[in-house]
């Protein structure tokens, strides 16, 4: 029979062994964590090995789709609004190896967001930009991130927003290459429009309807294509009167499918624009009820309410006049949009006509299936 002293010694031995086991375990955990956070990659390679995160993207060159895929690392994209569309947009750009992402959003992650992609329940309560940066950095540490947790429409924040899109490029002091509007309200879109017109900054707008079954993307080149204030932005009609949906206090519907589709067509257009392949869409709609994708192009409105839009139009006209006339092809193409329209251009319903009149700007030619998405509120103060 063991004495008390012998038993005490045995207990001490076992305690020591337990500490050693715990230390070994934590060392293994650390090694595992380090494996998950891969080191940065200096140069994109097309080497076909399982450990190369860019092999499938670089294969686009071999397939003759993109000439210089590596160029993606030189671009900075600002994403305004990191919700259902913006978060997925940011994730796609991160996985594609974009150089720098600047994220703007003032919202927090909530459980009510879990019907959409990207955010996870354990992130509830965190700011969307903080939670997004954490996830995205983990996916691709090669991307530079800059986040701003504020509402861009207040005066101070708007000034800071202007400053960051003017100087926040990958090379500090250079402007960003593209701004993506993934916001869900009129004021924020108007703020982005105001900033981009003043700076001559190219941007893309995106939107999903409040009934969750249609959406659109639009490329806006200040002075050249219609800006957000030139004409009421358009979405695809869903055969449901929008007036019945847009009542105050009524909770907007959303689907991960529609938001995923809109983020997909948005980033597709971004990749085509930045890496110069395929045709960059000026406007692409998505009607989920009919699986209908209308496209169109819209010129800037000389009577636009935005002073900087009119200034940009003058500059664009000057540049066009100076350019030798070779591009007759483009004009023809634009007309084809209307002539070849299988859906036929029809006069829109009376309600929509009234909506168009109520909104400022010229009434665009609308292919069937497209209607006005936003009407400008009677007394909106544009900063
Ligand atoms: Zn305009």
From TrEMBL:
GO cellular component terms, A-Z: cytosol
Entries under InterPro entries matching the protein: D-isomer_DH_CS1, ThiF/MoeB/HesA, ThiF_NAD_FAD-bd, Ubiquitin-activating_enz
GO biological process: protein ufmylation
Assigned keywords, A-Z: ATP-binding, Metal-binding, Nucleotide-binding, Ubl conjugation pathway, Zinc
Record's compositionally biased regions (Basic and acidic residues): 32-45
Domain THIF-type NAD/FAD binding fold positions: 54-305
One Pfam family recorded for the sequence: ThiF
Region (Disordered): 25-46
CDD domains (alphabetical): ThiF_MoeB_HesA_family
Molecular function in Gene Ontology: ATP binding; metal ion binding; UFM1 activating enzyme activity
PANTHER family in alphabetical order: UBIQUITIN-ACTIVATING ENZYME E1 (PTHR10953), UBIQUITIN-LIKE MODIFIER-ACTIVATING ENZYME 5 (PTHR10953:SF9)
Record family assignment: Belongs to the ubiquitin-activating E1 family. UBA5 subfamily.
Protein's name in the database: Ubiquitin-like modifier-activating enzyme 5
